[in-house]
Specification:
The complex is a heterodimer of chains A (about 220) and B (about 230).
Chain A: H1 5-13, E1 21-24, H2 28-31, E2 43-46, E3 50-53, E4 76-82, H3 85-93, E5 99-103, E6 106-108, E7 113-114, E8 117-118, E9 122-123, H4 129-135, E10 139-142, E11 154-155, E12 170-172, E13 176-181, E14 184-190, H5 196-201, E15 207-208
Parallel strand pairs in A: 1-2, 1-5, 5-10, 6-11, 10-12, 14-15
Antiparallel strand pairs in A: 2-3, 3-4, 6-7, 8-9, 12-13, 13-14
Chain B: H1 9-12, E1 21-24, H2 34-43, E2 48-51, H3 63-67, E3 71-76, H4 83-90, E4 95-98, H5 101-113, E5 117-120, E6 134-137, E7 140-146, E8 150-161, E9 166-167, H6 176-179, E10 183-194, E11 213-216
Parallel strand pairs in B: 1-2, 1-8, 2-3, 3-4, 8-10, 10-11
Antiparallel strand pairs in B: 5-7, 6-7, 8-9
Chain lengths: ~220, ~230
């Protein structure tokens, strides 16, 4: 069965290692925080100026001055810090953040990503995504494999305006875990009960399948 | 002590005119200069260019200036929270320059720090880099981005004194410190204007040299965009 959004988040959480500073994008990536192992030390960075994000506040304890990049009220963990936007992007651009997890509308086999604009339809802006993808060495994209019409979002070439070029290293979708290298998507894992053939059919870009592909263990 | 204190928001915004470029702090509705925005609406200055990470919501923040058709051009990184903004942009009434968030912050900081421009990897290979100078450093491509030039910066801080020293709270800090001293005149509104000497010099986030005018704001609404909570078990 294909994963739901929480399933994707759960699988991505396995990529988070002890001692990592992690930036989580809006949407599915935000859910990753709920599934990170409790026996490791991880700090979540939000680009609006906080390191050491905690869970949502208890009802009645929310503070308008403490939010995340999704404008949601949050709390902070012991050891947290606040800083200005230029400092926040110094952490990002300066490669001090170990892992960036973000959503996408399209990814291409050369590592290009598009997630900020649909010409003449939707123009919300790139926010911090262009800075994140241009600098991070470890970028995981969380997304659905296909759009609502069943068309692949895992492409040979992006059709939408790009957010960054040649930057995506890993993609986790509702169907598969893919590594992006040598101008192809390399199939690493399948969602439980999903066949290689189903993944192949949902993938427009070049898919490399070598040997037996294991199911994700969630 | 060089006194930066003005008595009210009217004095603070003295000299703001049509066609000026204005910087406004805030991330979403967090840390926006609410008093300055209300005064800009009252002054009804037209054809202004606003540099602000976001454009408010339909009925609050910079959304109020948009509703009033006061803004000619917006320079922002994310504008998804505002239907009127999207309508004016798609219809061509409003000129928009979408800028990566880190670049936006650094264009403020560069103006503050006296750098005319800087190279950033953000946006290389995308439409953001179109028409801009690019250059390779150590095998990686960068885009040359100029510093902002603005007439006024409107900043919101938590506490401040008449010397212009500022302390910010939580994530309402965001772009506010980067905009101090990044415009010809920096106007700061604070929730609490304290006596000079009360702020510990070790704990000041922005020294008063970057500030021209400071006043104590009133009636902060501090609207929350996404109220997310959990229940006590």
């Amino acid at each position: 069965m294909a994963l739901d959004k929480n399933g994707i988040a759960k699988r991505i959480a396995q990529e988070v290692q002890d001692g990592f500073y992690v930036n989580l994008g809006i949407g599915i990536p935000t859910l990753v925080a709920n599934y990170v192992r409790e026996d490791i030390e991880v700090e979540f960075q939000s680009e609006n100026g906080v390191l050491g994000m905690g869970p949502f506040p208890f009802d009645g304890e929310e503070d308008a001055d403490i939010i995340n990049a999704g404008k949601q009220t949050i709390t902070t963990m012991p050891g947290a810090s606040f800083f200005d936007s230029a400092t926040s992007f110094a952490m990002i651009r300066g490669k001090h953040v170990d892992l960036t997890i973000l959503g996408a509308m399209e990814v291409a086999e050369n590592g290009d990503i598009a997630n900020w604009k649909i010409p003449e339809k939707m123009v919300k802006g790139m926010g911090g995504a262009m800075d994140l993808v241009a600098s991070a060495e470890n970028i995981i994209v969380a997304m659905m494999h296909t759009n609502k019409r069943g068309e692949s979002k895992i492409l040979k070439q992006c059709s939408l305006p790009l957010t960054g070029v040649g930057c995506v290293t890993k993609v986790v979708t509702n169907l598969a875990v893919l590594e992006v290298k040598d101008k192809a998507f390399h199939l690493l894992e399948r969602a439980p009960g999903v066949s290689v053939e189903e993944i192949q059919n949902a993938t427009e870009g070049t898919l490399v399948v070598k040997g037996d592909i294991p199911e994700m263990s969630l | 002590m060089i006194n930066k204190k003005v008595n009210n928001v009217q004095q603070a915004l003295h000299g703001v005119k049509d066609h000026m470029t204005l910087m406004l702090g805030g991330f979403g509705l967090c840390g926006i200069p609410e008093n300055a925005i209300a005064e800009l609406v009252r002054l009804n200055v037209k054809n202004v260019t606003c540099i602000s990470n976001n454009a408010g919501v339909d009925d609050f923040g910079l959304g109020l200036l948009l509703q009033n058709k006061q803004i000619k051009k917006m320079i922002s990184s994310y504008v998804g929270e505002n239907d009127e903004f999207e309508r004016q942009m798609l219809s061509g009434e409003l000129e928009v320059e979408l800028t990566p968030q880190g670049t936006l912050a650094e264009k403020c900081r560069a103006a503050q720090a006296g750098f005319p421009a800087f190279y950033t990897p953000a946006g290389f290979g995308t439409e953001v880099a179109e028409g801009k100078e690019t250059r390779e450093f150590d095998g990686k491509m960068y885009v040359l981005e100029p510093a902002f030039k603005a007439d006024f910066a409107f900043v919101k801080a938590w506490k401040g004194d008449a010397a212009g020293n500022l302390v910010f709270k939580g994530t309402s800090r965001n772009f506010n410190p980067n905009m101090c001293g990044a415009a010809v005149i920096t106007v700061v509104e604070v929730e609490e204007l304290v006596e000079v000497g009360e702020l510990d010099p070790n704990h000041i986030h922005i020294p008063g040299i970057f500030v021209q005018r400071i006043f104590e704001g009133a009636n902060y609404e501090k609207r929350i965009e996404q109220r997310t909570v959990r229940q006590k078990q």
